[in-house]
Design a protein that fits this description.
The complex is a heterodimer of chains A (about 240) and B (about 500).
Chain A: E1 2-6, H1 10-22, E2 27-31, H2 34-41, E3 48-52, H3 60-69, E4 76-80, H4 85-93, E5 98-101, H5 106-120, E6 127-130, E7 133-136, E8 141-144, E9 147-149, H6 153-164, E10 169-170, H7 172-179, H8 188-203, E11 213-216, E12 220-223
Parallel strand pairs in A: 1-2, 1-3, 3-4, 4-5
Antiparallel strand pairs in A: 6-7, 7-8, 8-9, 10-12, 11-12
Chain B: H1 11-59, E1 61-63, E2 72-74, E3 86-91, E4 96-99, E5 117-123, E6 126-139, E7 148-159, H2 161-196, H3 198-208, H4 221-225, H5 229-275, H6 282-313, H7 315-318, E8 324-326, H8 327-337, H9 339-345, E9 348-352, E10 360-362, H10 365-381, E11 388-395, E12 399-405, H11 428-434, H12 440-450, E13 454-460, E14 469-477, H13 480-485
Parallel strand pairs in B: 9-11
Antiparallel strand pairs in B: 1-2, 3-4, 3-7, 5-6, 6-7, 8-10, 11-12, 12-14, 13-14
Helix pairs in contact in B: 1-2, 5-6, 6-12, 8-10, 10-12
Classes of the chains: A alpha/beta (about 240), B alpha+beta (about 500).
Amino acid sequence: MRVLLVEDEVRLADNLAAALRDGPGFAVDWAEDGQMGDDCACNRCYDLIVLDLMLPKLDGLSVLKRLRGRQDATPVLILTAKDGADSIIQLLNAGADDYLAKPFDLGELIARAKALIRRGKGAAHPALKVGSLELNTLEQTVRRDGIFVELSPTEYHILEYLMHRPRVIVSKRELLEHLYDYNWEHHSNVIEAHVSNLRKKLDADLPEPTPVIETMRGRGYRLAPELPPDQNEGQ
Amino acid sequence: MRLPSLNPRSIAFRLIVAVLAVELLSAVLVVFLSYGYERHIHFRAFDIALHGRVDSILGAVQDAEDPPQDNVMLVQPDLHLPPDDIYQVYDANSRLLGRSANWQGVPPDFSAPPRGQFTRMTVNGRHYRVLLFNASRIIDVAEPGGGKLRRFTILYGAPTEHVWHAINGAVEFYAAGNLLLLLVTGPLIAWLLHRGLLPLRQLAALAALVSVDSWQFSPPANARLTPELAPLTQAIENVLQRLERSFVQQRTFVSDAAHELKTAVAVIKSSLQLLGMKRRTAAEYQAGLERCLADSLRLEEIVAKMLTLAREESGVAALEPQPGADMAESLRQTVAQLETVAALRGVQVEVAAPAPGACAVPMAAEDCSLLLSNLLLNALQHSLPGSAVEVRLAQQAEAVELQIQDHGEGIDPAALPHVFDRFYRGDPSRARATGGTGLGLAICKAITERAGGSIALTSEPGPDLPNQGTTVTVRLPLAREALASQSLSPPPSA
């Protein structure tokens, strides 16, 4: 998952980015002012935007309004040092999904970030289940038919992203965009290698391997495990 | 109807008392005047009546028909006089011709009062006004020889009780009337005053509605048009405006300060939590602790600067007499202190200033150092490496002018009006690089203004201009002692 962090206080931004990378393993982009945050958000490659309110050049509320004005539904978590119900009501009404008051707890921030991403993808529970696959986003564990599958962090993130969008074709570009932050070299063959390893690991312990991740040539990948044959038509 | 309270300090009460006192005074005056007037009127009528009665007595004097003596007599049965009146009639030989029955045995001394004179007498315990009348009349006109002129002296008195009664009655009437007027006008004035002061109470009620949360004060339209209320209305509005401005300022400051402090605390907290998120090596912990310490120092710096700013901006301190600080000496020290910083950044500091001892400014020495070091550090931090910062200090007739010019990147014209705002950072990335709190220039402004001076900033942004960079100009008045001693003795050199 890729998160856009818009925060002008450099030390806080460092800490938040580190926590989001180290904890849930998100890719984090950092924008140091509102204008830059707005520009970044235009790429629409984020699963969550963490937005500070008091920003130079363009304040957080304006960034939020512009974002929602573009019909961008990316979940937004506001960081605010302002107290008072009025300000919070105004924020939520402007399209914010959640807020945290400074000084906040890093654990809470991560939990809220995860919940917002999950909700943004239409899942209510931190444990995702598609066919025989089970993925626990809290423990970051994967089971197939009840058996744990050991995955590298990147493989896990690819599977997590696909499991949030079962039966939808996800392009390599989309995977790249959502798994790596801006500073990463974008090479689509990196994704290919990771997906190949992921397939092997998921099928490793099964007596009769059935591929759960299909490659749609030139279009991307699709998570479609063990579906009835009639729904697999048209491949 | 609600009457104004009878508080002795209330204006209404005082006005009522004053009006009633004037009324009372005029009532007393009226009573006295009416007494004099009534007395005059009544006694004039009384005296005319007395003359009339004397005339009728004179008419009752007849020839006694006793030829040898040729006497006259008073024919009393013909007289119809009030029964209470007294009279005595004498002839020229002081022989008593007749007297009233109720006036016995008093030997009149009618030689003393001249003719036509009134005297007061007490007869039988009653007060009389008596007219002494010397009359002459020709009696026995029918007799041969045409009668002869005879002289009489008539004493005629009438009791004055009823006259006095009438006078007193009239005076009492006036007194009672006036008293009644007082009694009626008292409450009437109170009521009128109450009504008259209504706009004042309305104004007060509206002013009472103003609170910290609602500064709206809309005086009624007539309050501005009423000459008595207009200055008060204007004063209330002015005070409220000033108060509101100061409140908003304070609120903004508190809000800004809270934001800064919360952010600083959030940094420390997140640093610590990040450190505890997973097991780390000793070196990582060490680095993390150093970061936390640095974050704490920054928080400390923000708090210290906020306190400085609060101290400089508080009006209380401004009332103390400010000693004169030697700005030239302060500048020398500050430049010496910041030598290392300048060297580190590769910036040359060029100072053009008079010798220490000159340029006494009305502020505390530590404030002067703070002002200079803030401005100079700012200039150093925003200078391009290899450039120079020019510091010019000059004493003018009654002022000291300090200019610090750097040749840095300059300030965005859009940001220029805000540079003295608290917590304002022109460019966040720059502030980050220099570790600014956004309070330095606000503190400089507070120090300068407290000393009665002014501070201004001009900037030429953009590269490759000869005078590119920022110039800050501080103008301060000369300290009073310095002005006084300027001509007397040369200042001691430090």
